[in-house]
Amino acid sequence: MSNLPEPGLTAADAELVAGILARQRRSLAKAITLIESTRHDHQARAQALLEKLMPYSGQTGQCDKCIRVGISGVPGVGKSTFIEALGMHLVEQGRRVAVLAVDPSSSLSGGAILGDKTRMERLSQREDAYIRPTPTGGSLGGVAEKTREAMLLCEAAGFEVIIVETVGVGQSETSVAGMTDVFVLMQLPNVGDDLQAIKKGIVELADLVLFNKADLDPQGAENAALQMGSALHLLRPNSPHWQPRVLKVSATQEQGIAVFWQAIEEYCKTMRDTGEFSAKRRRQALAWMWTLIESGLHGRFRKHPSVRRELPALATAVEAGELPPALAAERLLDCFKEQNLEPLAE
Questions:
Q1: Interatomic CA distance for residues 14 and 197, integer angstroms
Q2: What is the CATH number of the domain that holds 102?
Q3: Helix (H, G, I), strand (E, B), or coil: what is residue 67?
Q4: How far apart are CA 83 and CA 33, in angstroms?
Q5: pLDDT tens digits, 126-141
Q6: What's the whole-model pTM score?
Q7: Predicted confidence (pLDDT) per residue in 1-10, tens digit
Q8: pLDDT of residue 291
Q9: Beta strand spans in the chain (E)
Protein backbone atom coordinates (compact mmCIF):
# COMPACT_ATOMS: atom_id res chain seq x y z
CA MET A 1 0.00 0.00 0.00
CA SER A 2 1.28 3.47 -0.87
CA ASN A 3 2.41 5.73 1.97
CA LEU A 4 1.51 8.86 0.02
CA PRO A 5 -1.34 10.98 1.46
CA GLU A 6 -4.69 10.87 -0.30
CA PRO A 7 -5.62 13.82 -2.56
CA GLY A 8 -6.76 16.82 -0.49
CA LEU A 9 -5.23 15.49 2.74
CA THR A 10 -1.89 16.17 4.35
CA ALA A 11 0.14 13.17 5.49
CA ALA A 12 -0.81 13.91 9.11
CA ASP A 13 -4.51 14.11 8.25
CA ALA A 14 -4.35 10.90 6.24
CA GLU A 15 -3.01 9.28 9.41
CA LEU A 16 -5.94 10.74 11.32
CA VAL A 17 -8.40 9.21 8.84
CA ALA A 18 -6.74 5.82 9.14
CA GLY A 19 -6.65 6.10 12.92
CA ILE A 20 -10.34 7.01 13.17
CA LEU A 21 -11.36 4.12 10.92
CA ALA A 22 -9.19 1.87 13.08
CA ARG A 23 -11.19 3.12 16.11
CA GLN A 24 -8.27 4.85 17.78
CA ARG A 25 -9.54 7.23 20.45
CA ARG A 26 -6.48 9.47 20.23
CA SER A 27 -7.03 10.05 16.51
CA LEU A 28 -10.70 10.82 17.14
CA ALA A 29 -9.81 13.33 19.86
CA LYS A 30 -7.25 15.07 17.63
CA ALA A 31 -9.75 15.24 14.75
CA ILE A 32 -12.45 16.81 16.93
CA THR A 33 -9.93 19.35 18.20
CA LEU A 34 -9.10 20.15 14.57
CA ILE A 35 -12.73 20.78 13.57
CA GLU A 36 -13.27 22.94 16.67
CA SER A 37 -10.32 25.19 15.80
CA THR A 38 -11.15 28.64 14.45
CA ARG A 39 -7.93 28.94 12.44
CA HIS A 40 -8.55 29.22 8.71
CA ASP A 41 -5.95 26.60 7.78
CA HIS A 42 -7.31 24.19 10.38
CA GLN A 43 -10.83 24.64 9.04
CA ALA A 44 -9.66 23.79 5.52
CA ARG A 45 -8.02 20.62 6.81
CA ALA A 46 -11.09 19.76 8.86
CA GLN A 47 -13.39 19.99 5.84
CA ALA A 48 -11.11 17.70 3.80
CA LEU A 49 -11.08 15.26 6.73
CA LEU A 50 -14.88 15.27 7.05
CA GLU A 51 -15.34 14.77 3.32
CA LYS A 52 -13.11 11.69 3.41
CA LEU A 53 -14.94 10.22 6.42
CA MET A 54 -18.52 10.96 5.32
CA PRO A 55 -19.04 7.52 3.70
CA TYR A 56 -18.34 5.93 7.08
CA SER A 57 -20.61 8.19 9.11
CA GLY A 58 -24.24 7.79 10.10
CA GLN A 59 -25.25 10.31 7.48
CA THR A 60 -24.72 7.75 4.72
CA GLY A 61 -23.12 4.35 5.04
CA GLN A 62 -23.88 3.66 8.72
CA CYS A 63 -27.37 5.16 8.78
CA ASP A 64 -29.02 1.91 9.89
CA LYS A 65 -26.45 1.21 12.60
CA CYS A 66 -26.05 4.53 14.41
CA ILE A 67 -28.50 6.23 16.73
CA ARG A 68 -28.20 9.89 17.70
CA VAL A 69 -29.89 10.75 20.99
CA GLY A 70 -30.29 14.32 22.22
CA ILE A 71 -30.95 14.83 25.92
CA SER A 72 -32.05 18.16 27.33
CA GLY A 73 -33.34 19.40 30.65
CA VAL A 74 -32.86 22.11 33.24
CA PRO A 75 -29.70 22.13 35.38
CA GLY A 76 -30.00 19.74 38.30
CA VAL A 77 -32.37 17.33 36.58
CA GLY A 78 -29.64 14.66 36.56
CA LYS A 79 -28.66 14.49 32.90
CA SER A 80 -25.06 13.44 33.49
CA THR A 81 -25.99 10.79 36.06
CA PHE A 82 -28.65 9.40 33.75
CA ILE A 83 -26.32 9.37 30.73
CA GLU A 84 -23.70 7.46 32.67
CA ALA A 85 -26.29 4.88 33.78
CA LEU A 86 -27.56 4.59 30.21
CA GLY A 87 -24.04 4.38 28.80
CA MET A 88 -23.08 1.60 31.22
CA HIS A 89 -26.25 -0.28 30.28
CA LEU A 90 -25.40 -0.01 26.58
CA VAL A 91 -21.72 -0.96 26.78
CA GLU A 92 -22.65 -3.99 28.85
CA GLN A 93 -24.84 -4.99 25.90
CA GLY A 94 -21.82 -4.76 23.62
CA ARG A 95 -22.56 -1.34 22.12
CA ARG A 96 -20.02 1.45 21.65
CA VAL A 97 -21.18 4.77 23.07
CA ALA A 98 -19.94 8.32 22.51
CA VAL A 99 -21.10 11.20 24.71
CA LEU A 100 -20.78 14.77 23.46
CA ALA A 101 -21.34 16.82 26.59
CA VAL A 102 -21.75 20.55 26.05
CA ASP A 103 -20.81 22.90 28.90
CA PRO A 104 -21.78 26.58 29.02
CA SER A 105 -19.02 29.08 28.35
CA SER A 106 -18.62 32.01 30.70
CA SER A 107 -19.94 35.25 29.21
CA LEU A 108 -17.09 37.07 30.99
CA SER A 109 -14.00 34.90 30.63
CA GLY A 110 -15.12 32.62 27.79
CA GLY A 111 -13.97 29.59 29.77
CA ALA A 112 -15.88 26.44 30.71
CA ILE A 113 -15.52 23.88 33.48
CA LEU A 114 -15.76 20.79 31.22
CA GLY A 115 -16.33 18.49 34.18
CA ASP A 116 -18.45 15.79 32.55
CA LYS A 117 -15.68 13.18 32.58
CA THR A 118 -15.51 13.63 36.34
CA ARG A 119 -19.28 13.24 36.67
CA MET A 120 -19.21 10.12 34.47
CA GLU A 121 -16.20 8.47 36.07
CA ARG A 122 -17.28 4.84 35.56
CA LEU A 123 -18.26 5.32 31.93
CA SER A 124 -15.10 7.28 31.10
CA GLN A 125 -13.01 4.28 32.11
CA ARG A 126 -14.67 1.95 29.60
CA GLU A 127 -12.75 1.28 26.40
CA ASP A 128 -15.96 1.10 24.37
CA ALA A 129 -17.13 4.53 25.55
CA TYR A 130 -15.87 7.99 24.64
CA ILE A 131 -16.78 11.22 26.44
CA ARG A 132 -15.98 14.58 24.88
CA PRO A 133 -16.81 17.73 26.88
CA THR A 134 -17.06 20.82 24.70
CA PRO A 135 -17.73 24.49 25.56
CA THR A 136 -20.59 26.23 23.78
CA GLY A 137 -18.27 29.05 22.80
CA GLY A 138 -21.24 31.43 22.85
CA SER A 139 -23.40 29.30 20.53
CA LEU A 140 -27.11 29.44 21.26
CA GLY A 141 -29.52 26.53 21.56
CA GLY A 142 -27.62 24.51 24.16
CA VAL A 143 -25.10 22.88 21.82
CA ALA A 144 -21.62 23.75 20.57
CA GLU A 145 -21.00 25.07 17.07
CA LYS A 146 -19.21 21.91 15.92
CA THR A 147 -21.37 19.30 17.65
CA ARG A 148 -22.80 18.08 14.34
CA GLU A 149 -19.37 17.51 12.82
CA ALA A 150 -18.17 15.79 16.01
CA MET A 151 -21.08 13.35 15.72
CA LEU A 152 -20.01 12.38 12.21
CA LEU A 153 -16.45 11.73 13.37
CA CYS A 154 -17.65 9.58 16.28
CA GLU A 155 -19.79 7.51 13.93
CA ALA A 156 -16.88 7.05 11.54
CA ALA A 157 -14.87 5.82 14.53
CA GLY A 158 -17.40 3.03 15.04
CA PHE A 159 -19.53 4.41 17.85
CA GLU A 160 -23.07 3.14 17.42
CA VAL A 161 -24.85 5.38 19.93
CA ILE A 162 -24.09 9.11 20.01
CA ILE A 163 -25.54 10.94 23.01
CA VAL A 164 -25.59 14.73 22.97
CA GLU A 165 -26.05 16.28 26.41
CA THR A 166 -27.03 19.94 26.23
CA VAL A 167 -26.09 22.66 28.69
CA GLY A 168 -29.54 22.94 30.24
CA VAL A 169 -30.41 26.52 29.38
CA GLY A 170 -34.20 26.23 29.39
CA GLN A 171 -37.00 26.48 26.85
CA SER A 172 -34.81 27.86 24.05
CA GLU A 173 -32.60 24.78 24.08
CA THR A 174 -33.99 23.26 20.91
CA SER A 175 -31.02 23.05 18.53
CA VAL A 176 -30.26 19.50 19.66
CA ALA A 177 -33.65 18.37 18.31
CA GLY A 178 -32.51 19.43 14.85
CA MET A 179 -29.40 17.26 14.83
CA THR A 180 -30.45 14.00 16.53
CA ASP A 181 -32.74 11.10 15.69
CA VAL A 182 -34.46 11.06 19.08
CA PHE A 183 -34.99 14.08 21.31
CA VAL A 184 -35.42 13.31 25.02
CA LEU A 185 -36.62 15.92 27.50
CA MET A 186 -35.78 15.24 31.13
CA GLN A 187 -38.03 16.66 33.81
CA LEU A 188 -38.32 16.67 37.57
CA PRO A 189 -41.58 15.74 39.33
CA ASN A 190 -43.69 18.50 40.91
CA VAL A 191 -42.55 21.32 38.65
CA GLY A 192 -45.99 22.42 37.41
CA ASP A 193 -49.32 21.21 36.11
CA ASP A 194 -50.21 20.06 32.61
CA LEU A 195 -50.96 23.62 31.44
CA GLN A 196 -47.47 24.68 32.50
CA ALA A 197 -46.13 21.76 30.49
CA ILE A 198 -47.89 22.96 27.36
CA LYS A 199 -46.36 26.43 27.77
CA LYS A 200 -42.87 25.02 27.43
CA GLY A 201 -42.13 25.24 23.71
CA ILE A 202 -39.41 22.63 24.04
CA VAL A 203 -42.01 20.01 25.05
CA GLU A 204 -43.60 19.86 21.60
CA LEU A 205 -40.26 18.79 20.10
CA ALA A 206 -39.76 15.86 22.48
CA ASP A 207 -40.10 12.27 21.29
CA LEU A 208 -39.75 11.00 24.85
CA VAL A 209 -40.29 12.81 28.15
CA LEU A 210 -38.40 11.40 31.10
CA PHE A 211 -39.11 12.08 34.76
CA ASN A 212 -35.91 11.46 36.69
CA LYS A 213 -35.42 10.93 40.44
CA ALA A 214 -38.71 9.06 40.56
CA ASP A 215 -37.47 7.08 43.57
CA LEU A 216 -37.53 10.17 45.79
CA ASP A 217 -41.28 10.68 45.40
CA PRO A 218 -42.91 7.76 43.54
CA GLN A 219 -46.43 9.15 43.81
CA GLY A 220 -45.32 12.63 42.75
CA ALA A 221 -43.52 11.16 39.75
CA GLU A 222 -46.60 9.15 38.81
CA ASN A 223 -48.83 12.23 39.01
CA ALA A 224 -46.37 14.30 36.99
CA ALA A 225 -46.14 11.63 34.31
CA LEU A 226 -49.93 11.45 34.03
CA GLN A 227 -50.20 15.23 33.74
CA MET A 228 -47.48 15.36 31.10
CA GLY A 229 -49.14 12.54 29.16
CA SER A 230 -52.39 14.52 29.12
CA ALA A 231 -50.54 17.61 27.94
CA LEU A 232 -48.79 15.76 25.13
CA HIS A 233 -52.11 14.52 23.78
CA LEU A 234 -53.13 18.14 23.26
CA LEU A 235 -50.06 18.83 21.12
CA ARG A 236 -49.50 17.83 17.53
CA PRO A 237 -46.89 15.03 17.39
CA ASN A 238 -43.77 15.44 15.28
CA SER A 239 -44.59 12.26 13.37
CA PRO A 240 -47.96 10.74 12.44
CA HIS A 241 -46.43 7.36 13.29
CA TRP A 242 -45.26 8.12 16.82
CA GLN A 243 -47.01 9.46 19.89
CA PRO A 244 -44.47 10.85 22.40
CA ARG A 245 -44.19 8.74 25.52
CA VAL A 246 -43.68 9.65 29.16
CA LEU A 247 -41.45 7.45 31.30
CA LYS A 248 -40.18 7.46 34.90
CA VAL A 249 -36.60 6.61 35.84
CA SER A 250 -34.14 6.83 38.69
CA ALA A 251 -30.62 7.31 37.37
CA THR A 252 -28.97 6.87 40.76
CA GLN A 253 -30.82 3.60 41.37
CA GLU A 254 -30.50 2.59 37.68
CA GLN A 255 -34.24 1.96 37.54
CA GLY A 256 -36.14 2.24 34.27
CA ILE A 257 -33.00 2.41 32.10
CA ALA A 258 -33.78 -0.78 30.15
CA VAL A 259 -37.38 0.32 29.58
CA PHE A 260 -36.17 3.69 28.34
CA TRP A 261 -33.77 2.13 25.83
CA GLN A 262 -36.47 -0.24 24.63
CA ALA A 263 -38.64 2.80 23.86
CA ILE A 264 -35.71 4.33 21.92
CA GLU A 265 -35.35 1.17 19.84
CA GLU A 266 -39.10 1.03 19.18
CA TYR A 267 -39.03 4.63 18.03
CA CYS A 268 -36.09 4.04 15.68
CA LYS A 269 -37.67 0.88 14.25
CA THR A 270 -40.91 2.74 13.58
CA MET A 271 -39.11 5.62 11.91
CA ARG A 272 -36.96 3.29 9.79
CA ASP A 273 -39.92 1.15 8.72
CA THR A 274 -41.79 4.25 7.53
CA GLY A 275 -38.76 5.84 5.88
CA GLU A 276 -38.84 8.84 8.22
CA PHE A 277 -35.50 8.02 9.83
CA SER A 278 -33.33 8.65 6.78
CA ALA A 279 -35.61 11.45 5.53
CA LYS A 280 -35.19 13.27 8.84
CA ARG A 281 -31.40 13.06 8.61
CA ARG A 282 -31.48 14.41 5.06
CA ARG A 283 -33.64 17.36 6.18
CA GLN A 284 -31.32 18.03 9.10
CA ALA A 285 -28.25 18.03 6.84
CA LEU A 286 -29.84 20.54 4.45
CA ALA A 287 -30.99 22.74 7.34
CA TRP A 288 -27.46 22.76 8.74
CA MET A 289 -26.05 23.71 5.34
CA TRP A 290 -28.32 26.77 5.23
CA THR A 291 -27.43 27.63 8.82
CA LEU A 292 -23.75 27.61 7.88
CA ILE A 293 -24.46 29.72 4.81
CA GLU A 294 -26.27 32.32 6.93
CA SER A 295 -23.45 32.27 9.48
CA GLY A 296 -20.83 32.62 6.76
CA LEU A 297 -22.66 35.50 5.10
CA HIS A 298 -22.97 37.26 8.44
CA GLY A 299 -19.23 36.90 9.04
CA ARG A 300 -18.34 38.14 5.57
CA PHE A 301 -20.77 41.04 5.92
CA ARG A 302 -19.17 42.22 9.16
CA LYS A 303 -15.64 41.96 7.65
CA HIS A 304 -16.47 43.71 4.38
CA PRO A 305 -14.42 46.92 3.93
CA SER A 306 -17.37 49.09 2.84
CA VAL A 307 -19.56 47.81 5.67
CA ARG A 308 -16.79 48.39 8.23
CA ARG A 309 -16.36 51.92 6.88
CA GLU A 310 -20.05 52.88 7.01
CA LEU A 311 -21.16 50.90 10.06
CA PRO A 312 -19.94 53.22 12.88
CA ALA A 313 -21.72 56.33 11.55
CA LEU A 314 -24.92 54.45 10.74
CA ALA A 315 -24.94 52.68 14.11
CA THR A 316 -24.49 56.02 15.87
CA ALA A 317 -27.38 57.52 13.90
CA VAL A 318 -29.63 54.60 14.80
CA GLU A 319 -28.72 54.86 18.50
CA ALA A 320 -29.43 58.58 18.46
CA GLY A 321 -32.83 58.06 16.87
CA GLU A 322 -31.81 59.97 13.75
CA LEU A 323 -32.16 57.03 11.36
CA PRO A 324 -34.66 54.15 11.25
CA PRO A 325 -32.94 50.76 11.83
CA ALA A 326 -34.51 49.37 8.66
CA LEU A 327 -33.05 52.14 6.51
CA ALA A 328 -29.61 51.74 8.09
CA ALA A 329 -29.71 48.01 7.49
CA GLU A 330 -30.71 48.56 3.85
CA ARG A 331 -27.82 50.94 3.28
CA LEU A 332 -25.34 48.52 4.79
CA LEU A 333 -26.69 45.68 2.69
CA ASP A 334 -26.38 47.86 -0.41
CA CYS A 335 -22.71 48.47 0.48
CA PHE A 336 -22.17 44.74 0.71
CA LYS A 337 -24.11 43.99 -2.49
CA GLU A 338 -22.63 46.69 -4.71
CA GLN A 339 -18.99 46.20 -3.72
CA ASN A 340 -18.85 42.55 -2.86
CA LEU A 341 -15.87 42.05 -5.12
CA GLU A 342 -13.61 43.89 -2.71
CA PRO A 343 -11.28 41.65 -0.68
CA LEU A 344 -12.43 40.87 2.83
CA ALA A 345 -10.65 42.62 5.68
CA GLU A 346 -8.63 40.40 8.00
A1: 50
A2: 3.40.50.300
A3: strand
A4: 23
A5: 999 999 987 654 444 3
A6: 0.84
A7: 445 455 568 8
A8: 86
A9: 67-72, 97-103, 129-135, 161-165, 182-187, 208-211, 245-248
